[in-house]
Amino acid sequence: MIKKEERSFLLDQQDQKVREQLSKISHKIMVMSGKGGVGKSTVAVNVAVGLSLQDFMVGLLDVDLHGPNVPKMLGARDLKLSRRPDGRLGAINYSPNLKFLSIEPLLPSEDSAIIWRGPIKISAIRQFIGDIDWGKLDYLIIDAPPGTGDEPLTVAKTIPEAYALIVTTPQEVSLIDVKKSIRFCQKVKLRILGLVENMSGFICPHCGKGIDLFKKGGGQKLAEEMGVRFLGRIPVDPRIVDTGDIGKPIIAAYPESITAKAFEELVRNIVSATEEMYRDVLEERFMRIAIPVSSPVKFESDLSKVSLFAIYDIENNKILIKDVVKKPENTDLITFLKDQVVTHVILFNPSKEWADTLVQNQIRVLITDSFEEHPDRLIEEYLREKQKH
């Protein structure tokens, strides 16, 4: 039986591996949906292939442990994990610009059933990220199972800087579940890249005209209502089923089709959106500000005593979310702030050494001369000053 100290050491080692791997990946995108049957995996696979065709280095991670579809949809069920010169396992090479990983190649047979509970699933997903050598990537696309269960929650906690790409259909029953996905993202502080309306109309195979088989426009309307980017519509093409079954994504198999063109536009919009969200952080339109507190309403001026932080998500000078988070005892301050994807921290009279260390880790230090202020008022005061400039 593993002792508590040994388990803690092993977890620390895995955390370090995860951080090292993620530092080599520019953009991480989790493709998720509120319910099944909306074509989420089809979107994830075609987006990954589409990005790779644009000369980006791409990884595709399938964290649907109970129903992995990615290997079949890529036509790559016979491919195996590669072995690096240093002995580490590498993700499976699909093309020069695209590699992927799924639980399926690790199973004894294709029809093996995974009967795992939460802790084992969490450990497996963390190993997929930390123990597998993905190399340097521009994009990591993560195909999560529908809903808000263990798998998407593990991704959100393990990759806090990831963006969520939410897939829906125009039907009202799907749109209701999308709201739950949006609330989930807000709760776990996962920034939403945008919304995709899949199965948006049907392309007739005889005349080539569009038919609104499952309605149309519901996703765009919901995106506007919830204040989320709308990234595009993907119409149904009868060939999309065949291409998924034979392992040739439609964006590559039928590049001149209306649906492939829609996926290409979606890919362009995703690239544009990720670049915009990155600039939002650089230009401080989006900030995640941490304030050390001794209680949810009291600022803590002594960093050596800090165990709680009030963390605020701010966009365009408006507070979106406020949360109070406890720093784990065995986690140092810098690691904790980076794990929370903090961009700024408000401190009272920090030492030069602390301030320099934070800045070196891309965390901007804001200094206050009032250590008795309510944390909310410190934020409000900073935003007022920021608006003046």
Task: Describe the structure concisely for a colleague.
This protein is an alpha/beta fold and 389 residues long.
Task: Note down, in words, how this protein is organized.
By secondary structure, the chain is α/β, with parallel strands linked by helices. The chain has 2 domains: about 5-280, P-loop containing nucleotide triphosphate hydrolases (Rossmann fold); about 285-389, Dinitrogenase iron-molybdenum cofactor biosynthesis domain (Nucleotidyltransferase, domain 5, 2-Layer Sandwich). The chain is built from 13 helices and 18 strands. The protein has helices at about 5-20, 40-55, 70-75, 120-130, 150-160, 170-185, 220-225, 240-245, 250-255, 260-280, 335-340, 350-360, 375-389; strands at about 25-30, 60, 80-85, 90, 90-95, 100, 130-135, 135-145, 165-170, 190-205, 210, 230-235, 285-295, 300, 310-315, 320-325, 345-350, 365-370. Strands 1, 2, 5, 6, 8, 9, 10, 11 and 12 form a 9-stranded mixed β-sheet that branches. Strands 13, 14, 15, 16, 17 and 18 form a 6-stranded mixed β-sheet that branches. β10 (about 190-205) and β11 form a beta hairpin. The longest helix has 25 residues, at about 260-280. It starts with a helix and ends with a helix.
Features:
13 helices; Rossmann fold; globular; 39% helix; Nucleotidyltransferase, domain 5; 389 residues; 6-stranded mixed beta sheet
Named at the architecture level, the CATH assignment of the largest domain is 3-Layer(aba) Sandwich
Characterize the main sheet.
9 strands, mixed
The tally of domains stands at 2
Name of the top-level CATH class of the largest domain: Alpha Beta
Give the helix proportion (percent range). Answer: 25-40%
Number of strands: 18
What's the oligomerization state? single chain
The Cα radius of gyration reads 22 Å
Uncertain regions spanning at least 5 consecutive residues: none
Principal-axes shape call: globular
Distance between the termini: 59 Å
Structural class: alpha/beta
Q: What name is given to the CATH topology of the largest domain?
A: Rossmann fold
Mean pLDDT, all residues: 87
What is the percentage of strand-forming residues? 25-35%
- H/I helix tally: 13
Mind telling me the CATH superfamily name of the largest domain?
P-loop containing nucleotide triphosphate hydrolases
